Amino acid sequence: MKKMIGILLLLALLLSGCGSGRAVKVDVSSDTLYVKAVDNLPKDFILGMDVSSVLAEEASGVKYYNFAGEEQDLFRTLAENGVTHIRVRVWNHPYDAEGRGFGGGNNDIEKAVEIGKRATQVGMKLIVDFHYSDFWADPGKQMAPLAWKDMDIETKTEAVYDYTRDSLKQLRDAGVQVGMVQLGNETNGALCGETTWFNIQFLMAAGSKAVREVFPKALVAVHFANPENAESYASYASKLDYYNLDYDVFASSYYPYWHGTLDNLSAVLGNIAQTYGKKVMVMETSYAYTDADTDFSGNTIGAGGGVAKPYPYTVQGQANSVQSVVETVANTPGGIGVCYWEGAWISVGQNSWEENSAKWEQFGSGWASSYAAAYDPDDAGKWYGGSAVDNQAFFDADGRPLESLKLFGLLRGGNEPEITVDAIEDSELVVDLNGVIELPETVNAVMTDNSRQAVPVTWEIDEAQMKAMLESGPAKYDIVGEAGGLEAHCYVSMVEFNFLSNPGFESGEADPWIVTDLGKTEQLYVEDKATDSLSGSWHMHFWSAAPGSVAFTLEQPVEGLRSGTYQYAISIMGGDCGETDIYAYVKIDGEIVGRAPMGISGYGNWDTGRIEDIAYAEGQEITVGISVKCAGEGNGAWGKIDDAMLNSVG
Ligand code: CA
Q1: Is 186 annotated in the active site?
Q2: Which end of the chain is more exposed for a tag (fewer CB within 10 A), N or C?
Q3: Residues 193-204: tens digit of each pLDDT
Q4: The pairing of beta strand 279-285 with beta strand 335-341
């Protein structure tokens, strides 16, 4: 009897193990991680994770742990912490003629089947990301697989259909639960070697047809990058509509460093969702928890600026960034989910580049191996190496989960432990080479809930170093300090500072310049035309047909100057002006104290009026300007004024 019960239990377990797999209980708590609840998060909202590199990582000896410190199947750990979907990229044949992998996980359909089975075992669904290429496809390149390279569009369309259908059948036969299938990866106007929408749509339609046949319940997704270009997105959606592509989800990558604001993302995706009746989602996002590299192979995000940094590179900052993306998509019309990109692509070793490189080559655990040269000699074949995103994973270099991983399980209910200081916000300062370096006395502490609190700061710099900065010409400096027990940075740019506002009219308006027409100048306005500008795309334009009608001044009062010596310059070009009376001028307390005559001598011949040695004392009123009078000839006097500058010379 006992034996019988045992067999029945085993049968029950086997049966429950069929199909959808065993859902893992999500039971997460944290004493430290702050998570603002996302209200009304739909029950079926996709919280995805791309772990395409995992098999190559494991083959390289990487071990993953759970929060109890035990080695545990990565998929189980992700499921326990609230991840619902696993995304996997699929390349047609990422191997050279000798069968050596190109790297990046060597992700072909066999790898996807294995990853899909493990995801299914713990109740997660798979998002299949067909690149329709033998290696990385993104906005920079969309190369056809080698075997399809010379096919005409009809043959290639058939190949896409057959390949998609056969690949999906392998997943279905293995019992993998497929929730969504992508028709290409970041297909910004190119796919599989095709660069016209007329051809691309044939390939996408073929892929879509195959998905509908093999997995009728799965969602069909298209995927683009660069949502900051709203017009491009509107154009992609419109093309797909024009060609009547059968798809469900318009998905976007969203990397906060490069891809604009969340408000813009929401507006762009929401607009497409409402215009075309589609679902929308963020298919890739990620955020750095540290600026340090851990695998001896450089990262896409490190220390230093040049990218948007809405959150500090900390474990809490990473969680806050993902929370904000989820909250945004959940509140966007048609928003169904967010997928994190490569949350487990960590270092394969701590000893040396050589040791790691050997593993990247053998197991494909780096972003590319040297063997990728067979397919992509100019990029992957040249710059191959390890993980460029190990500092954006949810596991540290030893495979231990970061507290931020709990975010997925805490999003619904929120988690609000005591707010503490998480990092010090970077400061930025622009200093005139003839000015004074006044570093801030306080800096903002970034709290765990991303609020700010001012705290006193001590900068590690002395008088001699500051003097050297003033004497070394235009340059940028990273001044290190200490605030609230943490490191602070002030990025100082030493510049030849221009004290004028809107000096080249690049705001698109004249303000705060005062334009006074003293004659009957018919056209006198700021104009957007780069070829007629000295720099940038805007300038002040004038034109008048009637002889002698051009007569105006353009001037700007300047406030906030220190006592000292200054110089002023402004430039003009034009034609058909006949006899002219044109000069740059400086007024102090209403009196002209400097005047520089200028002339007009034809298109592109810019003449600069320069007034040096302007002595100014605080309290005086100073105004700079240009006065223009033209007798005119021929078809009327015309001209352009641009690039004024008032700077300190001592
Ligand atoms: Ca790295």
Answers
A1: yes
A2: N
A3: 999 999 999 999
A4: parallel
